[in-house]
Write a structure and sequence with these properties.
Layout: H1 18-31, H2 37-51, H3 54-65, H4 67-75, H5 77-83, E1 94-98, E2 103-108, H6 117-120, H7 130-138, H8 140-146, E3 156-161, E4 167-171, H9 183-187, H10 192-196
Parallel strand pairs: 1-4, 2-3
Length: about 200
């Protein structure tokens, strides 16, 4: 099959692996003095480790441990997470929905990719994909199965459409065998995907 570009094209010299391409771009911008690597590392660390999904996991773990906190979160999530300092752009108006034996919740943004950055960090690529956005509304159980989640037939599945006005946090069900575990230990069981609704919290 003939190539549609010349090997003299500068892009042909870049590695095909996305991570290597990003590193090459970062190196070029650093050499030109356009970015500060230390500042870039700080931004990445903030979104990957400090902003999310640890913030959301802390909220969920506390809801599992403290019934009064859980009730307040379900009543007014925006106020509760703001009090914890987890607020900002893309997280101004939050609603918490709780998974139970009777209902499993999933979140999508059918129009674009609205997502609670202050709680969950950087959105996954699949969340922004056309396939997920279209299919999760029509066939949520099939999408869940593709993520490895099979629910009992009696468990209803509800899909919440995130918008610029409202963003959602799923409180996954607390796994069995976690009695006596503290907040930090529980946080390790809570993944970003479980707070979107495409996964369950991990067993201890």
């Amino acid at each position: 099959m003939p190539h549609d570009h010349s090997h003299d094209d500068p892009h042909a010299l870049l590695p095909s692996d996305p991570a290597l391409r990003v590193k090459a771009l970062e190196t070029l911008l650093t050499r030109k003095g356009l970015i500060d690597p230390a500042a870039l590392d700080e931004i990445i660390d903030t979104y990957e480790n400090r902003i999310g999904p640890r913030n959301g996991a802390r909220v969920v773990a506390r809801a599992w441990l403290d019934p009064a906190f859980r009730a307040a979160l379900l009543e007014d999530a925006t106020a509760v997470v703001s009090d914890l300092g987890f607020y900002g752009r893309q997280g101004e108006h939050m609603v918490a929905v709780e998974n139970t034996e009777a209902q499993h919740n999933m979140v999508v943004c059918t129009l674009c990719s609205c997502y609670p950055w202050p709680l969950l960090g950087i959105p996954p690529g699949w969340y922004k994909s056309d396939a997920y956005r279209a299919r999760v509304v029509r066939e949520p159980r099939k999408v869940l199965a593709e993520f490895g989640v099979t629910l009992p037939s009696e468990t209803a599945v509800r899909v919440w459409d995130s918008t610029a006005e409202v963003r959602y946090l799923v409180i996954p069900q607390r796994p069995a065998g976690t009695e006596g575990m503290g907040e930090e230990a529980l946080m390790a069981l809570i993944s970003r995907d479980s707070m979107i609704g495409t996964a369950l919290a991990s067993a201890p």
